[in-house]
Amino acid sequence: MSSEARLMQGNEACVEGAIAAGMRFYAGYPITPSTEIAELSAEKLPKVGGKFIQMEDEIASMGAVIGASLTGLKAMTATSGPGFSLKQENIGFASLTEVPCVIVNVQRGGPSTGLPTLPAQGDVMQARWGTHGDHPIIVLSPSYVKEVYELTIRAFNLSEKYRVPCILLMDEVVAHMREKVELPDPSTIKIINRKKPAPSIVNYEPYRDYDGDGIPPMASFGEGMSFHVTGLIHDVTGFPSTNARVTEALINRLMKKIFDNLDDILDYESIFVEDAESVVISFGSTARSVLRAVHLMRQEGQKIGMIRLKTIWPFAHKAIQNLSSQVKNLIVAEMNFGQMVETVRASAGGRFNVVGLNKFNGELITPDEVIVKVREVMGHA
Amino acid sequence: MRKELEKYFRTEKLPHIWCPGCSHGILTGAVIRAIDNLKLDQKKICIVSGIGCSSRAPGYMNFYTLHTTHGRALAFATGIKLANPDLKVIVLTGDGDCAAIGGNHFIHAARRNIDITTVVFNNNIYGMTSGQYSPMTPRGAYATTAPYGNIDRSFDLCKLAQSAGATYVARGTVYHIPQLIKLIEKALQHKGFSFVDAVSICPTYFGRKNKMASPVKMMEFIRDASIPIKSAEKLSKEELAGKIVIGEFYEEQAPEYTEEYAKVIEKVREGN
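Above: the input entities. Below: the structure tokens describing the complete assembly.
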């Protein structure tokens, strides 16, 4: 049965999506503008037999989430800029130990305490490289309330499938805006659960690539198989090693399990790019302004298109590289001083003129500002 | 090692990495003996540690073991225990791990009275990084980062645990092993947050800086400084200066966190 249409906030859609995806554990710490996610998780989780805990700080929340996931529960935490910074060490732990978990970061203006209630997209690079060392991570970014629901489910699915922390990078606008949403029939939702070790395995080695797909099956604490988990570089048995070949093999596998599956992980929407001379690249709430601008300019006959990234990291280089040679300009619209634009520039490799449209004052990028920028770049300002 | 204890160890991982004369092996043995004496189900025990010398212990122990980030063992352990209350969760931590970087998690785990047993391997020093002063280094002692003598005041971890809400609190030492095993047994049997301050020795980094480079000297120091709580009660504050008071400090039955949460689930689901 399909539920009736509801007026729903982005943060609420996130919790609905998480529970639909199978979230049964949430640990968090209050921070604007993500707090509704904690409040609604506290209310809804016990109803489905799940657990909620408000921890003493952001670091502890991330630790508790990893601990819960190691017992087999799907676990999530939500935060905003300053809290996201605090979680980074344990996000790295989850990345190296391959513990599935979902981290929601509702971005606000920064740096530091910054602009607690105003929108920004300043954590693009922190989401990719916030924790130390080479590590895999998946980052998704929704633009609509309905999409918050869908991408939260997808974040759990990707996290479970690839045993990697998955970050849902929202912004304050998407998180607090209310839109009409019709949730799908739960039975139609595709749910992915982590791969378990085959019962035939004796002497289970927690980091052995039994299936050759780069993703070791994951036992849970409490299931009967004794095993060790450490944040130190480890061999296939899970115990520490400083051996150069072991280290290289582990880091290679961690990276390859993501980069060998880009077709599955990458998700983006291309609009009017076929005959476009200028393409605006955007994500999150900014993409909504871009879409409006593109429609308005198309009505004027301008050859403009857009790419809306739903998977931010790994970066969808193919979305740039597949653009036809008639494209002259790429405009990267983002609410920061210029973060994703550098990756787009690297991806363009000199083929296109790459320009940033940046705003970092706590105000949204408006459709008018997109139009002005595109006209300027196209040379008819 | 006694044959019947071998099943609790990952014997292929031995010998351990600790320095000659370190007492962390004795403490690991005490935890194992307490588990064995109680005949706890090995398949229901999860041992969690942070970072430091003591936090390497779980790697040698044949249970579900988790070696986390510095200071965060109790945060991870809280997630494990709440997610699966059937597990017996034991945290092994050091004095720096528990009382400095992990101090916040320590007081809040105690406050929640979550059913976790914490044993701090308290050797008064950061051993893994080779001898910096910790929150447990006595005033006046020397360390690589206190070359002119430590001016920091140290915690009384038992008082801290008790005032934060721990419902079983005890202190033992590596010199008084039969007593320490008993204290850990009581902690493991206690429902709620139980805490054992296990006073340990680091001849290599604490001893060498403080004229006790030989393990025997350090053991003798602990023997001579220790005083049972019953005797300590008769002494003045001045007479107690520099003493290590050992024994059982506190025990109380109080609502346990995961049981309380189970009641929340029950209440909410009845309402449905």
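Note for the figure: The two ends of chain B are 55 Å apart (CA to CA).
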